[in-house]
Amino acid sequence: MVNEDFEPSSSTVVHGGQVPLPVQVQLKQNRRRESLEELLQQLYNPCVAIERRGSTLVDESGSTTDASDFSFSLPRPIRPGTRLTEQSLNEQKKSELIAITVQLRHEIHLASQSLIRALKRRNQQMSKLHSLCNLLSAILQAYSSKRSEDTKLKFTVEPMKSESGFQQWLEAMRAVARLPGGIPHDFRRKMWLNLAENYLKTVGIDWNEVRLRTFSEKLNPDDNELNMQIVKDLHRTGWTGLNTDRERILLKRVLLAYARYNKTIGYCQGFNVIAALIMEVMENKEEHALKVMIMLIEHVFPNDYFDQTLRALSVDMIVLNDLLSVRLPKLYSHLESLQKHSDSEYEPPLINVFSMQWFLTIFATVFPKHLVFRIWDSLMLEGSEILLRVALATFAKISRHTLNATSADGFYELMSRLSRKLQTMGKTQCENLIQLVYSMADFPFPGLHELRDRHLWNIQPFSSGFGMFRHQVISILKSENDPLGCSAEIEDDFASKKSLSLFGELI
Length: 507
Prior knowledge:
- By secondary structure, this protein is mainly α.
- The protein is built from 22 helices and four strands.
- β1 and β2 form a beta hairpin.
- InterPro entries: Rab-GAP-TBC_dom, Rab-GAP_TBC_sf.
């Protein structure tokens, strides 16, 4: 596909000489540069106060002690902020020096007592953590398949440094994710970050270089390669789950950082949803969030899932239809019949509208947040097949309702109502869905790799229809009142349906 924003960076070279760019091209480049400078100003200058840390002390265990723990109530001959020097002490009277000595001894005693209390709290927390890890290790071994390697399962919050130690930790985390309740919330941030940092280390990414380049408040030499549409999107992007201006600014900083890091993808519609959820888990630490986002998009998802072609996404939408025909044949036949007898001249597979949005936002707007977190845990631990497993489990859950649809339009209306119910599922329903995700097939999903490969080589590129398809993706993802994107426009607009069908045309 031709990139309309592509121009030479400064001037065109002809026979060793430089020909000045046309005025229109220069103006366009200047507008892009000004827009990016405005965005950087918006994202970095308001955040000066945000970056300041409070007076909180952090011990090695990660627990915090407020500076107020070290406050003192005695009268002070030494005013706060006073710096004692040899000269100033020589000028003091003997009685004043005695008072200073008494004060210092008292403050040292109080500080020592406070430090001892903090160390005791840390030791108690570490002991409790050690006991919980041992308990979890015992539970994992009890729930295991009793293989010889299962006896080595040992739960730890942090993986050991060696590759074998990391694999042991990974297997333990995979086992915990399957237990009722899944990964404890307090462990989730560490788990995601450990997975991300291990990936960055494995592929040899120089994080210090990436950090300096992607979070720079100044224009980089290669920022001209950013597509103008990315800059426009970042100016206006948001996410209704964010409560403060600070959170929105940090979100945009992460999105811009990823666009700078991976210019091939840049910014994809739906990234704001993905990045916002990552930021929440990473407690708004933008560098940690970028690490997780890089690992998720580059390592967990297949190639071309979020690029301009959405080719791998298209493959998964076809694969899901294939899996439905095998795993839920009654539902598949019913939907196929509704598609065939639709009043529209062309009706795409009915689930496409929904699966597209589910996959692009990783179910972030489909289920209650605690279930979304569990799905993401499984995705990072087991890989992208979790997307297809969750989609299958969801259709299995709602199949008895969808079988009542008597037309394609009726199916879309029904799915719109069901989507609101999915967002309010109870904990028992959520647990049942997760258990179905894990129990429906062995890992890796039998035949899935071959199925993806076969469709990958058979899918026709979007060519002229891609513009309509991408427009439809954007309209679905921007629909705030309709989480599944099942709007009347989608139901009634023939052109939109036809554009959705283009992903599945075979050579």
